[in-house]
Specification:
Strand content: 15-25%
Structural class: alpha/beta
Radius of gyration: 20 Å
Mean pLDDT: 94
Number of helices: 11
Bound molecules: S-adenosylmethionine
Distance between the termini: 49 Å
Shape: globular
Helix content: 25-40%
Low-confidence stretches: 342-348
């Protein structure tokens, strides 16, 4: 879409609704141009978050794991950007069909048209795949940036679909509220599913500890290169009042235990997920580390491991590492994720 085709009044209205972050009773899509403008802007930014999550998921599983052959259900699909990103990442033939569900029929139809155009080979339908659920086909449930719009009843409905799914791919904005809601989902489903991402352990979330109440689980996706020179995005960022470089998200990937290859979720003792980003100070870095069933703040003195400190600062995607710790001080470490950083390992 060209800059001059954007409906700024519609985008302003949508931004205000999203920022309010409250259950929304009515549908806010007024016409397909609203959806096209969203898809090219807010939606595309959400697409970058999905790209980061899917890239990391595929790298984590060394490209061997994918959702089982069955329908992909995009719940609260909006313009359908998340479903299309998932189809692109795993290949459309990974899924038997794409089901687009939204409380707005306009959104479902828009998303269906976009998907048919991009993936002409896949069967596309609107609504929940009831027949597939009833016949026991493995349904992959995708949820993106929906949770804070749902009423209690809507959330209950979504959770009932989640309990019938075989795999769940879920991305929400990286706000404290969205993260805490997603932690609630994790805790509710952890008995039935294996937690594939982002947690390096299967037991209760370490952020539920009373001492960690002001923290939340979030990571950052890198924006595409050259974004700050692109007139479309510069104008959009100014108008929408957003920082183009900051793409925070919270995410959760769950799968039925029998669908997860051995080794993917076991033997992860000692792996630590960095929550958010390391914070740089003169002479040292501070980070919040989640592993071995707890979340704790750690410090790395630059002089102890200057190369590791540089790697941690340079990495703009979710970090997974092994630390050698003394008290709260990182003495050494190996970055496991993202893999491009792992190539330049600092020996323990
Ligand atoms: C912020 S948009 C996100 C759209 C899309 N998932 C994405 O990531 O770009 C939220 C979407 O959820 C839909 N939605 C809100 N409440 C819903 C409900 N109870 N059932 C189904 N869809 C709902 C809205 O109509 C809207 O399309």
């Amino acid at each position: 879409m060209k800059l001059e085709e954007l409906d700024w009044a519609a985008l302003d209205r949508l931004r205000d609704l999203f920022l309010a972050s409250q259950p929304i009773r009515s549908t806010y899509w007024r016409n397909s141009h609203d959806l096209a403008c969203y898809d090219a802007t807010f939606g595309e930014r959400i697409g970058w978050k999905w790209d980061a999550v899917l890239r990391a998921l595929i790298a984590q599983t060394q490209g061997i794991w994918r959702p089982p052959l069955g329908p992909l259900l995009d719940f609260g699909c909006g313009s359908g950007i998340a479903g299309r990103r998932v189809l692109s990442a795993f290949g459309a033939s990974t899924f038997s069909a794409l089901h687009l569900h939204d409380k707005s029929r306009l959104a479902e139809n828009f998303a269906a048209d976009q998907a048919r155009e991009k993936f002409p080979g896949i069967s596309v339908a609107c609504g929940v795949p009831e027949v597939a659920f009833e016949s026991g086909l493995p349904v992959t449930l995708l949820v993106s940036h929906v949770l804070n719009e749902l009423s209690t009843t809507d959330t209950r409905h979504l959770m009932s679909l989640a309990r019938r799914a075989s795999t769940i791919l879920w991305v929400e904005p990286g706000t404290s509220l969205a993260s805490r809601q997603l932690i609630g989902v994790r805790e509710a489903l952890k008995g039935e599913f294996a937690i594939v991402r982002p947690c390096p352990y299967q037991n209760s979330c370490g952020l539920l500890n009373a001492a960690r109440q002001t923290d939340w689980c979030h990571h950052f996706a890198p924006p595409p290169p050259g974004l700050s020179m692109d007139p479309f995005w510069v104008r959009f960022a100014r108008q929408a009042g957003i920082d183009l470089r900051s793409l925070p998200y919270s995410h959760l990937v769950l799968a039925r235990p029998d669908l997860v290859p051995p080794g993917l979720i076991t033997d992860r003792t000692g792996e630590h997920r960095v929550i958010g980003r390391p914070r740089s100070f003169k002479g040292y870095l501070e980070l919040l580390s989640c592993g071995d069933e707890k979340v704790e703040p750690l410090t790395l003195q630059r002089r102890d491991k200057p190369e590791l400190a540089d790697q941690l600062e340079e990495t703009d995607e979710a970090i997974l590492a092994r630390w050698m710790i003394e008290g709260r001080r990182i003495r050494s470490g190996v970055i496991i994720e993202p893999p491009s950083t792992a190539l330049r390992e600092t020996p323990l």
